[in-house]
Amino acid sequence: MRTPFVSPPSTNKPGRPRDESLPARRREEILDSATRLFARRGYPDTDLDSIAAELGVAKGTLYNYFPSKRDLFLAAVDRGVADLHRTIHAGIDPKGDGLDCIEKAIAIFIDYFQEHSELVELFIQERAYFRERAKPAYFAHFDADTENRMAFLQALIDAGRIRAIPGMPDLDPINDLLYGTVLANHFNGRRVASGEQAKTIVDIVFFGILTDGERRRRRERGKRS
Fold it and tell me: Class assignment of domain 74-216?
């Protein structure tokens, strides 16, 4: 009688477990490389081949994560702004004194752009090459948190900590001041001591540039006019 064939026991070792975190890590690596190259070379002069070459991967790998160079650039901008907001929120105590939180947030903001100046370059390019976006990423993220900021400011107004200023229901003027500051720092190649520029901005925002006497004089002049 014919002996049936029996497969010998496999000597192969079990495969290595799937690394579930790899796709997320790879995506971050791609965004890191893209941010550096877009900031250094500019959007028109940066192609997916150069980004893939810096990473040591095939260009097809990039397409597994981003359909096009445009999608990759916008993802890099959005990630940078989201990271800025996370860094600020992580650095302040939500249960702490409200004015201390504002002061701390300003310091973190200035320091963040000292360490991530490449994000400013992406802001400039986003405005130059993607004007069809309803709002630049920076302002879109800022507007998304409007409700929380309004509640935060109203609590300070109700507590008698800050004035209710007509025409300034939100922190828009302070945000615009900070945004302009980091652009000016970048354009001028200005490196400021950590915290020093933030202290100056906080001093102006909290106390203004006028003396108490000058404020009184201007109030009186306003009443007479």
Answer: mainly alpha
Q: Which residues, other chains included, contact 80 with Cβ-Cβ below 8 Å and sequence gap of 6+? A: 35, 116, 119, 122, 137
Report the C-alpha gap between 181 and 168 in whole angstroms: 20
Token reading at 181: 């500051």
Q: Where are the domains of the chain?
A: 74-216
End-to-end CA distance of the chain: 120
DSSP 8-class letter at 163: -
φ, ψ at 58 (rounded to 5°): -75, 150
pLDDT by 10s per residue, the chain, length 225: 444 444 455 555 555 677 778 889 999 999 999 999 999 999 999 999 999 999 999 999 999 999 999 999 999 999 999 999 999 999 999 889 999 999 999 999 999 999 999 999 999 999 999 999 999 999 999 999 999 999 999 999 999 999 888 766 677 889 999 999 999 999 999 888 778 999 999 999 999 999 999 999 998 998 887
**Cβ–Cβ under 8 Å, residues 167 and 150:** no
Cβ atoms of 150 and 173 within 8 Å: the answer is: no
58, 52 Cβ separation under 8 angstroms: yes
pTM of the model: 0.85
Give the contacts of 175 (CB within 8 A, at least 6 positions apart).
142
